Task: structure prediction
Amino acid sequence: MADLIDRAGIELTLAGDPHELLTQLQAAGVRFNDSARTLLFRPALARDLQTSRPVRVVERSLTDLGLPNGGTLPQLRRAALAAGLAPCPPAVAPLLRLRTLDQVNAPDSVLRHGRAPEGSVHVLSPSLGEDPRVHRGFYLRVVDEAPWLRGFMCDDLHVMGADDRWVLSAPTSAP
Result:
């Protein structure tokens, strides 16, 4: 599967408000699950959008981050930090969805319980809820040519696959 983001990464600008962002996503034909709609209006996301700052993001697999057998969210966070990367601000996911509408179509529309759906790219951010029954963050996927922004849930014991793709925040380039 092709990477969503070039190896060098891309820069996004955090700006706007959740209502404007939802309008832009809807105008672009983005579909949502109920969790994503709820997460769009979490206070952390609104605070991010008010900062008006650039964020550079990169895409890596768990194997790329030194986890060849996969790992849990806490292990993923530690591996990202060891690689000089960090969780993304929560607003990155919807902004990235707008920026990557050309994401490759998933090979199927199956949602798999306990593992990432084929063709999905998760965005590592601070958990948007600590309760494992509450969606923890976002992932991007294209199914039947329609771009999706979906919420995902898991607990800190769930093991992600070694080849699962994650978007992480990278240091921004100096001017």
Q: What stands out?
A: The mean pLDDT is 88. The first helix runs from residue 18 to 27. The chain has five helices and seven strands.
